[in-house]
């Protein structure tokens, strides 16, 4: 079959289109940054998850080590049950702290893991026992106002402990 | 094998309750050139479409080589059409292809012949119509007469048994007309085919056809050889053959009385 | 007065029924095209030829438009973002707008205007000059030989064009944001990469453009095939192609976006 100029141009077009899709995936999207490796799932219970959404990052020491997989409501304890998928490369000790932080001042919320000292590691299906809830802005403001009000009464400031 | 390659038996056809054809009977013998003539709008072109299976009759039948056309399934109709070649009114060449590609089209679609053979066949057909030198031209670069001839070459590319012509002389100059007349006759005789020519051009047609059918008001009003029809006394045939302005086909479109219309109801 | 109201209602009803009828016959046409598509792939050169005429020939308008759209997005976006101190999110803004919406939709609208009208006019004229009839009489199905290759060419070209649109748009946005305005190069790309998800955004964008490809090409082909075989008929058909394609694209966009955002 004869090769014509038309074939050349169509080949160039198809190659350029494929390159564009590839470029979008690599440079524009997060294909390179999402870990496509194997993961193991652990759960954590929070009294308040704030604005945490599925697929939010799970970070430790600032590095993404996993993703939030699912969020459910536990009606026996009236808590939020969050499933975390962690990269198999990173084992965490059983007494790890899981807290919900906010990226920047008003940014997206993510789960931060602080490693404990236990020699045993979390296995798939385990539950993280130590959790810290998200900071809810309204509670913080009302606390601040309460502190301000009590400050005018007595000079000592009362530090409120965030409950476990 | 019957003597008639195409037979039209008691054919009726129409749209939405209005019948265009009311009981037409025609037969087309092998090897002959037959003309179908009649006034504009008498349904001549529609007859070609009925033979080709593009339309289905309301009553009656069309038989091609013994098979009833409208009873065929899709493959059957395509099989019948491969025996036919049709020349459309303005040529209907494929505008995005060259002359060569246009004539090669049916060969490529229906056979698996190698390129060298296709080239030989196309050149032979173009030679027969006198346009072998023009094979590189694009279809859009041709004059009307040349386009018609290329379309003719394409219609006979597969050596069909039936060749149909839809108003082949429309809009042609006298020289081109003479060329087409000669081609219709010579191709028909060379291929041993049957040619059906739909036209209203009396002078040119009578010079080379074997038989003529006259169609008017949905029926065949007259038939015969050109000589017989020239001598005919039938009013319609007479009006048609001699080009008279008024006769069975009236000059005036139906209208109310002339005097009353002009005076617009005033008393005379 | 009474009669004119009745007349108006009759007219609307008549037009509505007519539209429904056409839609039905368009759907039937769509199925015929799918059924007769075998030939478009067995004789690939037919489809490749049509990809050239619909896809390659639309490249210039798509790429130039993409470039300008990307640049405008960056300009307008920066204007608003810097008011909230979030000017580093400009990359995210440009990329998400393009990949999710503007890429597929604007490409589809431009495609309908350029390639769609060309297809409609070509097929309408082929019908008017009896070329399609001639093909039928030569025992070649015009739908298999003429219509189906153009359909698949449109469906293949559209996602490629949309991807090229998004890519060039991002580049245009980059050129305005980083060298011109002075947003940080690293922040531009890293924020974008962190917030544009391959599956949710890019793949959805490609799915959208495939659907638009089917819709626009089908409408263009049907209007051409159904056009009355006169000069006026063909010109009205090309207008209808643009109008109907645009409406279909925007409507389908809404439907698909509402599925995809959930």
Shape of chain A: elongated
Please, what is the average pLDDT of chain A?
Answer: 79
Topology pattern of chain A, helix = H, strand = E: HEEEEEEEEH
Helix content of chain C: over 70%
Compute the number of helices of chain C: 10
Largest interface: pair, residues per side: A-C, 25 and 31 residues
Number of helices of chain A: 2
Distance between the termini of chain C: 51 Å
Low-confidence stretches of chain A: 157-164
What is the percentage of strand-forming residues of chain C?
under 5%
The counted number of beta strands of chain C is 0
Strand order of the largest sheet of chain A: 7-1-4-3-2-6-5-8
Structurally, how many domains make up the residues of chain A? 2
**Overall pLDDT score of chain C:** 91
| Form type of chain C | globular
Q: Give the end-to-end Cα distance of chain A, rounded to a whole number of Å.
A: 76 Å
Order of helices and strands of chain C: HHHHHHHHHH
Rg of chain A, Å, rounded = 24 Å
Which class best fits the helix and strand makeup of chain A?
alpha/beta
Written description of the protein model:
- The complex is a heterotrimer of chains A (164), B (268) and C (262).
- Chain A is an alpha/beta fold and 164 residues long.
- Chain A has 2 helices and 8 strands.
- In chain A, strand 3 and strand 4 form a beta hairpin.
- Chain A is elongated.
- Chain B has 268 residues and is α/β, with parallel strands linked by helices.
- Chain B has a domain at 1-82 and 200-245: Rossmann fold, CATH 3.40.50.
- Helices cover 36% and strands 24% of the residues of chain B.
- Chain B is built from 10 helices and 10 strands.
- In chain B, the strands form 2 sheets. Chain B has a 6-stranded mixed β-sheet with strand order 6-7-8-3-9-10, with helices on both faces.
- Chain B is globular.
- The model of chain B has no long low-confidence stretch (mean pLDDT 85).
- Chain C contains 10 helices and no strands.
- Chain C has helices spanning 2-35, 38-42, 44-54, 59-81, 90-128, 131-137, 142-181, 185-195, 198-226, 231-261.
- In chain C, helix 3 crosses helix 7 and helix 5 runs antiparallel to helix 7.
- The radius of gyration of chain C is 22 Å and the shape is globular.
- Chains in contact: A-C, B-C.
- The interface between A and C is medium-sized, with 25 and 31 residues.
